[in-house]
């Protein structure tokens, strides 16, 4: 381990001591843009300190590009600690920075620490790291100063890592196949967003108001290295009032801006993609924005395990099997984790849209489709896919049942009938 070594979101700056858990470093948190203290411990294979958790659980982040990629993996590390164990070098200052300045017996409960894997080591960061301000360090290996006897005050709600007024540039919309979307609402545009953020042991959250965006307000969660938000609106997509899932994923760029993908996927299968770039122009009146500290933590849905590449095939009740098709899919969920959108997209831009709720995925799409016996027709496809039990991560296979209702057409020889739908995972 050397100065400058990156570990996930942290960049090591200077080794400042040891404790019983490993080597303590001064480091720069690239997400919150603050200096923090972290402890690097040797990976012992999970026997005593580290245990892997399934991808998609425990705060791992949803993948956001099509074709989908697996979420970032991580570790949860647990061991008995007092308030600052793992944050102070050589055991100094451990009594000085508790919630209550008065010393109290060691609690039997176990504090959870978040860890990021890298290069055969695990970086452990106390969730209460905001309570420790790095003491002044000499440049020649001097002994670190002990922390102040009074706990550092919590950051005010207006000073979170994603707070302020931002000028937003949004590119023109493209379709699933990459071609340009037509219509006045597909044009590039500019907007102003106001954000208020705060961080706690449950992570960082930001509330936002927008002017010209698909929705007027949104909540962002700091998931991995991204600020990620999902909100629902309603638009016309070959039928009125179609439910639209608006997803924004932003990462900090080297020039200080925030940039990332903006997608809109509807229950009837309309999909667009844009790129948004945010440049901070000043402060904002946080009193006009909801307090993010009053929000419940984001809940990770089991549906987020549906991501990657899948082979899909429909088998009709009359025995006819459609050709196997390759799809890329990702799943975006509301903060409560109870409802999600899983959009399966083929390379040619065709898709299948499934909304997750009540333990399963449901499809309800109406569109023109060719008939294998000739002609074309307007059909409504309804289908249900059950969540595998026990839960899989990633989901290896999905099997469900549906019905194609033929509504109208010209020269149509196909008839309404039931079908089976199968998706089998083929990769990331």
Q: What's the quick description here?
A:
The chain has 428 residues and is mainly β. The protein has 3 domains: 6-152, no CATH class; 158-293, Lipocalin, CATH 2.40.128; 302-427, Lipocalin (Beta Barrel). The chain has strands at residues 6-7, 10-19, 22-29, 34-42, 50-52, 75-79, 111-118, 121-125, 164-170, 189-200, 203-209, 217-223, 226-235, 242-252, 258-266, 271-282, 308-316, 325-333, 340-345, 351-357, 360-370, 376-386, 397-410, 417-427.
Most strands sheet: 8 strands, antiparallel
Percent helix range: under 10%
Counted by DSSP, the helix tally is 0
Overall, the morphology is globular
Instruction: Summarize the helix and strand pattern as letters.
Output: EEEEEEEEEEEEEEEEEEEEEEEE
Please, what is the average pLDDT? 75
Quaternary structure state of the chains depicted: single chain
Give the percentage of residues in beta strands. Answer: over 45%
The end-to-end span amounts to 31 Å
How big is the Rg?
Answer: 25 Å
Task: Give the number of domains.
Answer: 3
Low-pLDDT regions: 43-155
**Spatial sequence of strands, sheet with the most strands:** 1-2-3-4-8-7-6-5
Which structural category do the helix and sheet elements fall into? mainly beta
Total strands: 24
Keywords: Membrane, Transmembrane, Transmembrane helix
Can you describe what's shown?
Mean pLDDT is about 75; it is low at about 45-155. With about 425 residues, this protein is mostly beta strands. The radius of gyration is 25 Å and the shape is globular. An 8-stranded antiparallel β-sheet has the order 1-2-3-4-8-7-6-5, with no helix packed on it. It is built from no helices and 24 strands.
């Amino acid at each position: 381990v050397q100065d400058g070594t990156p570990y996930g979101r942290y960049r090591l700056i200077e080794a400042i001591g040891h404790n019983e858990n490993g080597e303590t470093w001064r480091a720069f948190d690239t997400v919150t843009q603050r200096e923090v203290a972290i402890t690097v411990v040797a990976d012992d294979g999970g026997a005593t300190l580290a245990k892997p958790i399934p991808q998609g659980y425990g705060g791992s982040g949803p993948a956001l590009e099509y074709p989908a990629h697996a979420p970032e993996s991580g570790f949860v590390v647990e061991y008995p600690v007092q308030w600052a164990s793992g944050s102070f070098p050589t055991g100094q200052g451990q009594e000085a920075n508790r919630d209550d300045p008065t010393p109290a017996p060691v609690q039997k409960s176990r504090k959870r620490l978040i860890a990021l894997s890298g290069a055969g080591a695990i970086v452990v960061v106390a969730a209460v790291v905001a309570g420790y301000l790095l003491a002044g360090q000499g440049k020649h290996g001097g002994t670190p100063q002990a922390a102040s006897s009074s706990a550092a005050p919590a950051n005010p709600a207006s000073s979170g890592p994603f707070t302020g007024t931002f000028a937003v540039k949004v590119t023109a919309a493209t379709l699933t196949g990459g071609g340009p979307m037509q219509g006045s609402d597909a044009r590039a545009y500019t907007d102003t967003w106001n954000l208020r953020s705060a961080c706690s042991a449950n992570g960082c959250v930001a509330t936002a108001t927008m002017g010209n965006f698909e929705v007027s307000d949104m909540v962002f969660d700091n998931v991995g290295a991204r600020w990620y938000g999902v909100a629902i609106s309603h638009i016309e997509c070959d039928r009125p009032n179609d439910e639209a899932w608006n997803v924004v994923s932003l990462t900090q760029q080297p020039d200080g801006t925030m940039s990332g993908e903006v997608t809109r996927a509807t229950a009837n299968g309309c999909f667009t993609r844009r790129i948004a770039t945010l440049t901070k122009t000043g402060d904002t009146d946080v009193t006009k924005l909801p307090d993010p500290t009053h929000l419940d933590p984001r809940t990770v849905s089991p549906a987020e395990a549906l991501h990657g590449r899948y082979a899909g095939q429909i088998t009709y009740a009359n025995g006819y099997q459609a050709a196997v098709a390759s799809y890329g899919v990702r799943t975006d969920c509301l903060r409560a984790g109870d409802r999600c959108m899983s959009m399966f997209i083929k390379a040619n831009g065709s898709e299948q849209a499934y909304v997750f709720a009540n333990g399963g995925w449901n499809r309800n799409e109406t569109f023109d489709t060719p008939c294998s016996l000739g002609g074309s027709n307007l059909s409504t496809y309804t289908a249900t896919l059950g969540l595998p039990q026990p839960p899989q991560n990633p989901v290896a296979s999905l099997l469900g049942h549906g019905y194609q209702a033929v509504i109208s057409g010209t020269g149509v020889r196909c008839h309404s009938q039931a079908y089976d739908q199968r998706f089998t995972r083929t990769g990331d």
